[in-house]
Design goal:
single chain, about 350 residues, alpha/beta, Rossmann fold, nine-stranded mixed beta sheet, three-stranded antiparallel beta sheet, 13 helices, globular
């Protein structure tokens, strides 16, 4: 990765300099207003490119990258974790301890090294790099008003609790909500949701079959937020995935956002494969649960980068409506800079 700073009188001129020097695929890492020697104000832009050599790229190179970008967003997951090279930096070794895939940790480390040469410290540079590699979404966009929000994921992921947390927050903000569950398998599941909805002075609905949808949709019409819980499935069982897909297609959720709920404590390799396994359900965001149950954040980081899906919330406990926070690049960078350790281990 090649990183350069550019200074110009305004942002338009600065971007023109970036394009001229680094090509059309250059990425803006940071920008700020600086003061010149005579007190005049300038725009300073820090940009990067993956080109082997500096300078504008050939049109064929740009076309190849554009064609590659249009292909599937999921990166290939290696069969195992190869050993890092002996000259790996301290940061790369730390990322490896977290369980970040070596090809990803190397990319992060190279970007941090290059950006550090511009004067930023490791935490700030890691923050900026993660902000470019992961699509962090603001809560208002991730859980938009006026849409159906469907929550999918493996068994035990914490979907129902997460739905209740989000519903409670929206109710506190004086929004109307409706709670719907497709889960008629979990004993007492709907009863718990109904009790919770009653406490919020709202309604909960159990959809047992596709024929129930018309009546439920009519009852939920006009609500600011409609949260739809689904049964936990074995995401690697294609029959279960197909069955859930048919149930969702039967109710025709064209105006819906599908949220993939994944525990942060899952096995890193399997976790990174789950978005691809559930691609048929068209998730657009990932919501991580059980953030408090692990200090190894490699799995979370791997899936956030390789899936290309938007990231917003993490839950860090079971309390409702508490224990749900927005995840951003700064928080993740700060966590990754800490050595993962078990509760009884002393901090080095």
């Amino acid at each position: 990765m090649h990183i350069k700073r550019f200074t110009a009188n305004n942002m338009t001129d600065a971007l023109a300099l970036v394009k001229q020097a680094l090509g059309d695929d250059a990425v803006i890492l940071a920008n700020r207003r600086v003061e010149g020697e005579n007190g005049e104000s300038h725009i300073e832009v820090t940009a990067a490119t993956d080109s082997v050599s500096e300078g504008a790229q050939s049109s064929s190179s740009v076309a190849q990258k554009a064609e590659h970008a249009q292909q599937k967003t999921f990166e290939k997951i290696p069969d195992n974790f190869p050993k890092l090279e002996h000259d790996a930096s301290d940061l790369q070794k730390l990322l490896d301890k977290h369980g970040i895939l070596p090809n990803i940790s190397k990319r992060i480390d190279n970007a941090v090294k290059a950006l550090a040469e511009t004067g930023f410290d490791d935490l700030d540079t890691l923050d900026m790099v993660l902000g470019k590699m992961i699509t962090f979404e603001a809560p208002a966009k991730a859980v938009a008003k006026g849409k159906y929000h469907v929550f999918i994921g493996p068994t035990g992921a914490g979907k129902s609790t997460t739905v209740c947390k989000l519903a409670a927050h929206k109710k506190i903000d004086r929004h109307s909500i409706a709670l719907i569950t497709l889960d008629n398998q979990k004993i007492g599941g709907f009863e718990q949701m109904a009790i919770f909805a009653s406490a919020l002075k709202e309604e909960a609905y159990l959809m047992k079959a596709a024929e129930d949808w018309a009546e439920i949709e009519q009852a939920a019409q006009g609500k600011d937020y409609v949260f739809i819980d689904t049964p936990g499935i074995n995401v690697f069982n294609t029959a279960q995935v197909s069955a859930l897909k048919k149930r969702l297609e039967a109710i025709g959720l064209q105006n819906a956002t599908v949220h993939l709920v994944l525990p942060a404590s899952l096995n890193p390799l399997e976790m990174a494969a789950m978005p691809a396994a559930l691609a048929a359900l068209h998730p657009s965001t990932i919501l991580f649960t059980k953030f408090d149950e692990t200090t190894y954040l490699g799995g979370l980081t791997n899936v956030a980068i390789t899936s290309g899906l938007k990231v917003c919330y993490v839950t860090d406990g079971t309390s409702v409506p508490d224990d749900i926070v927005e995840l951003d690049a700064s928080m993740l960078a700060e966590k990754l800079m800490r050595k993962p350790r078990l509760p009884w281990e002393r901090e080095a």
